[in-house]
Design goal:
Elements: E1 14-17, H1 78-87, H2 92-97, E2 108-115, H3 120-135, E3 143-149, H4 155-163, H5 176-184, E4 187-191, H6 197-211, E5 215-222, H7 229-239, E6 247-252, H8 259-269, E7 278-281, H9 288-298, E8 312-320, H10 329-354, H11 363-375, E9 385-390, E10 393-395, E11 398-400, E12 418-423, E13 435-440, E14 447-454, H12 461-466, E15 476-482, E16 486-494, E17 502-510, H13 511-514
Parallel strand pairs: 2-3, 2-5, 3-4, 5-6, 6-7, 8-13
Antiparallel strand pairs: 1-9, 8-14, 9-12, 10-11, 12-13, 14-15, 15-16, 16-17
Helix pairs in contact: 6-7, 10-11
Domain Glucose-6-phosphate dehydrogenase NAD-binding: 114-292
GO molecular function, one term: glucose-6-phosphate dehydrogenase activity
EC number: 1.1.1.49
Amino acid sequence: MSTFSSMHSPSYSHSFICSSSINEKKNQRFVFSSFPRFSVPANAKVFLQCQANSHQNAVLMQDGAVATKVSPVEKETPIEKLKSELLSVTSSNEWDEKAGFDINENESTVSITVVGASGDLAKKKIFPALFALYYEGCLPKHFTVYGYARSKMTDAELRNMVSKTLTCRIDKRENCGEKMEEFLKRCFYHSGQYDSEENFAQLDKKLKEHEGGKVSNRLFYLSIPPNIFIDAVKCASSSASSGNGWTRVIVEKPFGRDSDSSAALTKALKQYLTEDQIFRIDHYLGKELVENLSVLRFSNLIFEPLWSRQYIRNVQLIFSEDFGTEGRGGYFDHYGIIRDIMQNHLLQILALFAMETPVSLDAEDIRNEKVKVLRSMRPLQLEDVVIGQYKSHSKGGVTYPAYTDDKTVPKDSLTPTFAAAALFIDNARWDGVPFLMKAGKALHNKRAEIRVQFRHVPGNLYNRNFGTDLDQATNELVIRVQPDEAIYLKINNKVPGLGMRLDCSNLNLHYAARYRN
């Protein structure tokens, strides 16, 4: 039985399952068997890029998850580029050949349909991201947002649900409330089955009413389980696609359960869509501090020389949640914490962290460097993995249920809700440096962060002369992704006074304080 003290939960006890219960294919080239291929066609575009040096609220990825930024066309601002892309009637390939072609903004509209609108992801992530685009002026003049799901709901009920998660926390101006009202007025709802062409035809009729005869560009955002992707895409393609503009589909992770199912899903999607219509994304790469990772490293000379095995002792990638499945275990039980968090969110961050300097910020160049990291990664060994599942626990008169107490989870489920793994990259920069991934549900707090621990000072002068224990307190760079985004560097410092007392202090960049308006 093993445990990680930094992940210990005061509210739950964990029983750890023998790591040999993990299925491991022999000679597996990549780290996890569920690891999808990471490749981005050269014509990939950043769908949600807006103001220069501003925030990407979502990142377009094709055939994999890659965080990119594309340089704007000369003499064209990023907002103009975004609107041109949204309003263009051409496909992505045509756009490359006709970079200057667009149509009058008054003659075109964009209809965004969130398929699975009543789900947790749509409520917490997708609708707030769409509002952020509107708030920053990154959506065209004419657009409509439709929610589509099986749940019965009115337009007013959808707006009430969405309004609870909208925020202007990044750049709160006086007109925030006004902008919210404007956005909500453009949100509508249609109830239907995901495999019903008739229901999608009814949606098509409603979309046409809002489009008012303009050139229709349609985007379908699939916030549904992968086992119903194909049904929804088939119905949308046959009954609700645009007749005179473009039709595109955004596919959220997980994109299949493993490499084989991912390839099968791609093949099935291409029965109804071309490759340049499919946008596969990992929404976690839109996190502010994840986007800032390459900026921190490649635009600050003080970090790049230290970014190697000579100075770094280990790198920890931590994702913890302070809540369990809470009635949503049916979906989670099919995947587990490794497939749900580690092989996508954390593996993507690892690749961004460890990659060499790309030739440019184009999607293809960043993808190439990330692939090199992944190809250099040593196959994961079972002895380097610990998994566990949270159990019930009573504290302060409150009983916290076990994972298997969730009514949507089988009583005999062995699905891990916690996992820790040590990964190694066999290249000149990172040879011998462990990358420690930790992810779990029902832990003591909610956080996602990268912790870079540097090596001990050789021949520690102050430990030798003053008997301090600071040789045990190494320098550490912490990049807190959530909550309360921050970057801080732990350094050893002298406490003011006549005596030689040393202390560990933080050089802190707290985003809420630094970028508060």
